[in-house]
Amino acid sequence: MRWTVWSSICLKSRFDLMEAPRRPVRGWRGPLRGVRGLFGLGLAGLVAGGASAETIVEARFEGPTTRYGHGILGDAVEFTQLVIMTDDAGVARQYRVSLPDDHVFEDLEPRLWDITGDGAPEVVVIETDMGLGGSLAVYDQTGKRAETPHIGRTNRWLAPVAAADLDGDGRVEVAFVDRPHLAKVLRVFEWDGSALQLEAELGGLTNHRIGEDFITGGLRTCDGVRALVTADADWSDVMVSVLADGALVTRSVAPFSHEAVARAMTCG
């Protein structure tokens, strides 16, 4: 992977996506006071202060581009840069990664999900190789922590669902639908301490339709059981899938509607 060299800037009070309508994540917010410059995400080391006190509090995309013509999210705009903001014992730090010319972030917004299971978030994004399609990538302030394999050809995408310890084994899984308009396969990868490993997959499920600027469903917890909410392949039913003994099991809970999805997400 080829990374750019950065210059130091100050934190912005707001993010303007220009012609792109997608929004930055606002979450895991802490006290942001001042800034200590930008550091290359390709570097192995951390900034002074160490990892123990530094927590990701916000992430956003910048650098809108039309260099990849897939347009699966309803417009021609994707992104070339990821900005990560952290709080390090009250000191605000900002990191930026710029992708090489043959990659884009083909995504709505960065997700602050705990992938490593340490109680602090990483940044989860859809990173697309323009020749090899989408992958799910995990970043923090030290760089790219993990990435699933690219799908394998251009104009092939994935739609994230959720990240959580889905089977109660103490390790975090992350789920996405591989090619939600074509293959419609729910895939679950587990964090093994250093990488994401495929744990289970199940066909006949989807969570996105071409042109929509949102992803349907997500994670629910009902009676202590964590489950993934999606639609079935033809959008006729709301489906709830659980991971147990290394396998996914799914069932219909209602005829599909967005209202039914909302009820399913809240255990209704």
From TrEMBL:
Q: Which UniProt keywords apply?
A: Signal
* InterPro entries per UniProt: FG-GAP, Integrin_alpha_N
Checking SUPFAM superfamilies in the record gives: Integrin alpha N-terminal domain
Do the record's keywords include Signal?
yes
Name the chain's protein.
Answer: FG-GAP repeat protein
